[in-house]
Amino acid sequence: MAIKSFKRYEKKFLLGKEHYNNLIPRLLEYMNPDAHCKSGKNYSIYNIYYDTDNNDVIRHSIAKPYYKEKLRLRSYNIPSNPTDKVFLELKKKINGIVNKRRVVLTLEEAYKFLEFGKKPISDDYVNSQVINEIEYYLSKKPVVPKVYIGYTRKAFFGKEDKDFRLTFDSKIITRRGNLSLEAGCFGENILEEDQYLMEVKILGAMPLWFTNILSELEIYNTHFSKYGNEYMRYSSDKQKYNDMREIKRIC
To answer: Which residues in the chain come in under a pLDDT of 70?
Structure first.
């Protein structure tokens, strides 16, 4: 097992193709592509988000509370074996500051933990601490696999400040059935064609050169949550379906 911990601010921007094409060359003056994005390549991220039967986690999250947290199972490849490595992540947001704690497990360990409460064994104190945090989360929230979200990502980090990161996510695919990472990436795209979600990940203030570029290109931040937008779309479609059933019943 291995653990990583992140604490940072995140700003989000929705870009069309023109903004994206104009921005990338400017970024390369100050940033380098992530090691997984050499030669212009993207990498893929696959997630299963966990929530209650009543969607309490995401409903609380989209209300923009002071504190929120969510649990997800993440992979950077489509698993094909129980021993394949996956990330179990507990993501917290407190007054705008994101804190992400995660532990690397085998797919089998993760499923046994999430479905049956069997804790993974670790001799490492910090790993054990994160596992205990997740165990506590599971004890107070009866969560189940709720939604799949997969996407492709292009990432950059600052040449001078490697803690300054930018990611561009596209082809954000979601589904509410067949909720296993092994099933692969298929479902509905929640972004428009040629649209990108840019996330700025910072420990403090954004670099002046970056804010100047955003101003010149007239790029403005927005509020966008992958899971939140998926849920609002799902709720809207569900309401439309119920309305149609009610109309047919009356008629």
So the answer is: 1-7, 239-251
Domain boundaries, the chain: 3-250
Q: Looking at residue 138, what is its pLDDT?
A: 96
Reported as type and span, the H/E element at residue 108 is: helix 107-116
Contact present, 37 and 45 (Cβ < 8 Å): no
Residues 71 and 143 sit within 8 Å (Cβ to Cβ): yes
DSSP string, 34-75: -GGGGGG--EEEEEEEEE-TT-HHHHHHTT--SEEEEEEEEE
Q: What is the secondary structure of 5-19 as a DSSP string?
A: EEEEEEEEEEE-HHH
Sign (positive/negative) of CA torsion 235, 236, 237, 239? positive
3-250 CATH, one of 3.30.300.30, 3.20.100.30, 1.10.540.10, 3.40.50.2000:
3.20.100.30
Phi-psi region of 26 (alpha: psi -120 to 50; beta: other; left: phi over 0): alpha
Q: Would you call 197 exposed, middle or buried from its count of C-beta atoms within 10 A (0-12, 13-18, 19+)?
A: buried
